[in-house]
Design brief:
By secondary structure, the chain is an alpha/beta fold. The protein is about 25% helix and about 20% strand. It has helices at about 10-15, 20-25, 65-75, 100-105, 145-155, 170-175, 205-215; strands at about 1-5, 30-35, 50, 60, 85-95, 110-115, 130-135, 190, 195. It has a 5-stranded parallel sheet with strand order 2-1-6-5-7, with helices on both faces. It has a two-stranded antiparallel sheet with strand order 3-4. A two-stranded antiparallel sheet has the order 8-9. Helix 4 links the parallel strand 5 (about 85-95) and strand 6. The longest helix is centred in the C-terminal third of the chain and has 12 residues, at about 145-155. Bound molecules: adenine (ADE).
Length: about 220
């Protein structure tokens, strides 16, 4: 799966996407991340990506032209865009992201994510995107963290990305949105008097499965 991320802060992505699981997934050719600096798509000498709002008011607004040009260069503009290529605008006004959304989005071959800043986007950019997504009911300084959250949540669902093929299937999020996982333990067996439940040391897989099932924790409300 290929992700293109449009941002005015491309360096933000360097460390997160190039560590650990996502680094390995890229090396294995399972995911590809292309980070595009929106300033490259500006035409003025100051490389302006934002401007004052018409009608006045506080703050600055992301300009439509650099984003449009970037989408054009990625063949991401309608109507030519293929159905397997989705364009997502990251905005607190969007639909709330969830595990179910991650599963839906994995069906795309390509996703292009647009990160905003300041007071928001020039309204006209909304005509060129397929979806508007928020990662929660709070306002961040930019769309970069939301982009990383979404890319991470989708990437780990791609077969082969997680080391152990079962580790994303087994999660209770996938089975039932209302439950969380069973409790996990690793060494030591005794930590300051807190002992690992004996059943987990028994080697009896049927009993372990029953114990885990019984101890599935409910999502906090
Ligand atoms: N940009 C700023 N805040 C955001 C949020 N909560 N979700 C997506 N994009 C954002």
């Amino acid at each position: 799966m290929r992700f293109d991320i449009l941002t005015i802060f491309p360096n933000i992505f360097d460390s997160y996407l190039n560590e650990s699981i996502l680094k390995r997934a890229q090396k294995a050719g399972l995911v590809e991340f292309q980070i595009h600096d929106l300033r490259r798509f500006t035409k003025d000498k100051h490389k302006t990506t934002d401007d004052r709002p018409y009608g006045g008011g506080p703050g600055m607004v992301m300009k439509v032209e650099p984003i449009y040009s970037a989408l054009k260069s990625l063949a991401a503009l309608p109507p030519k865009k293929s159905r397997s290529h989705g364009v997502i605008l990251l905005t607190p006004q969007g639909r709330i992201f969830s595990q179910a959304e991650a599963k839906r989005l994995i069906k795309f071959k390509r996703l292009t994510l647009i990160c905003g800043h300041y007071e928001g986007f020039d309204e006209r950019i909304r005509d060129y995107v397929d979806e508007q997504i928020s990662i929660g009911d709070y306002v961040l300084t930019g769309g970069e963290l939301p982009a990383m959250v979404i890319v991470d949540a989708i990437s780990r669902l791609i077969p082969g990305v997680l080391g152990d093929a079962d580790s994303s299937k087994d999660e209770s999020f996938s089975k039932d949105q209302k439950t969380l996982e069973y409790p996990h333990y690793t060494r030591p067996e005794n930590f300051l008097g807190q002992r690992v439940p004996k059943i987990l040391l028994s080697g009896n897989h049927a009993q372990i499965a029953a114990w885990r099932n019984k101890h599935l924790r409910k999502k906090p409300t």
